[in-house]
Amino acid sequence: MRVVIVDAGGANTGSVRYAFERLGVTAALVTDAEAIRGADRVILPGVGTAAQVMARLRALDLVEVLRTLERPLLGICVGMQLLFERSQEGDVEGLGLLPGTVARLRGGPGVRVPHMGWNRLQPRADGTLRTGIDADAQAFFVHSFAAPVTADCILACEHGQSFAAAVQRGPIAGAQFHPERSAAVGAQLLRNFLSPSFVPGARA
Amino acid sequence: MLSRRIIPCLDVRDGRVVKGVRFRDHVDMGDIADLALRYRDAGADELVFYDISASPQGRSVDRGWVERVSRLIDIPFCVAGGIRDVATARDVLHAGADKVSINTPALERPALISELAEAFGVQCVVVGIDSIREADGEWRVRSHTGDPDRTRALAVRTLDWIVEAQRLGAGEIVLNCMDNDGVRRGYDIAQLQQARALCAVPLVASGGAGECAHFVDAFAQADVDGALAASVFHSGRIAIPDLKRDLRAAGIEVRDV
Lengths: 204, 257
Known about the structure:
The structure holds two protein chains of two kinds. In chain A, 23% of the residues lie in helices and 31% in strands. Chain A has six helices and 14 strands. Chain A has helices spanning 13-22, 33-37, 50-59, 63-67, 78-81, 183-194; strands at residues 3-6, 27-30, 41-44, 73-76, 84-87, 92-93, 98-104, 115-120, 122-123, 138-143, 145-146, 153-158, 162-169, 172-175. Chain A has an eight-stranded mixed β-sheet. A four-stranded mixed β-sheet of chain A has the order 6-5-7-11, with helices on one face. By secondary structure, chain B is an alpha/beta fold. The longest helix of chain B is centred in the first third of the chain and has 11 residues, at 32-42. At the A-B interface, helix 1, strand 8, strand 10 and helix 6 of A face helix 2 and helix 3 of B.
């Protein structure tokens, strides 16, 4: 299986690659359209701001490639936020693969932003990406912006408000938390994404 | 609900973990990777690696061990010490660290906080503060605490610096209360409470942990998001599974392992 990580300039590309290594899978860091179209699984990580990552994808001419990708795509953190139509962070247009707008976490008394640390996941819509992840399992989050709980939300999280912790619509998936830093829960999510049964009928 | 974090801090010198509360007479504790894995297995929620060789010697962090740790562990970690510019921070983050922590360089050039926040987002930028209570009753910051011969007392009030650091883009504050550091009589609750009132970003308590009850106090009374400790974990005086059991019994949300 060819697994590629889109090098969108974020700082966690290395950690994501190592997480796959721990699962026995070599993932290549790529920036060209051919490698992405030819892959069996595509990961879009992102640390930084939505505007920075989008600008980098534009500069690499990868926006259309990702929009029209037929293979499974997993966005991580900002990478997941960019699956949506817009992000209020810098008011940028996202890839538009999922409906919705990413907005800043409101915070408030006792609710700190950035949302940083281990928080519990609650199952929402069905999705093969969350196979084997129990209700109340904990994952590691670091972010200030979040996607809304929509029909595509398969795992929700609570931090002063509900937001999407993981999403899936067919082959398009995302995790707001960092699977590469979420111990066994994170490894399970990545294994699910690699699994032949991730998208029924898709190429393994 | 967000868990309160337990964060062991490991001092690193020349690629090895050493013990010595950042001062002299360092004792070799073992290989970074071995210790990182041991803490991960015990249920640490996050690790901080303090590169004590980097800062006083004016060197930057050796990214070799950062990469080694990143390959091995599947929990987040932060690297502190020797980070003075965006390029060094980028090296450390690209090698796999999740956050960088800056202390003296931020005091010398506060704009560094903004530069890092701009380049990597505030969630990567931790500002470490060493604070001491002076004769007039005010808490003030100390710089260059990695080397006792170079440690400087600054006129900056700790609470003012906490506000300023957030304004510039700090995504987390680690407040090390030096009066309590290494003496194991508990975290400085009064100071942490005042810091908490001014801190809208996550706040991590440091300095003074001696027993499980001290962690309970810091979380329950000062509402900190995380508690950092070194010697009590390294010596085996506190085992993380026991600590988490006590915290859970006190009604404090912690991560299950």
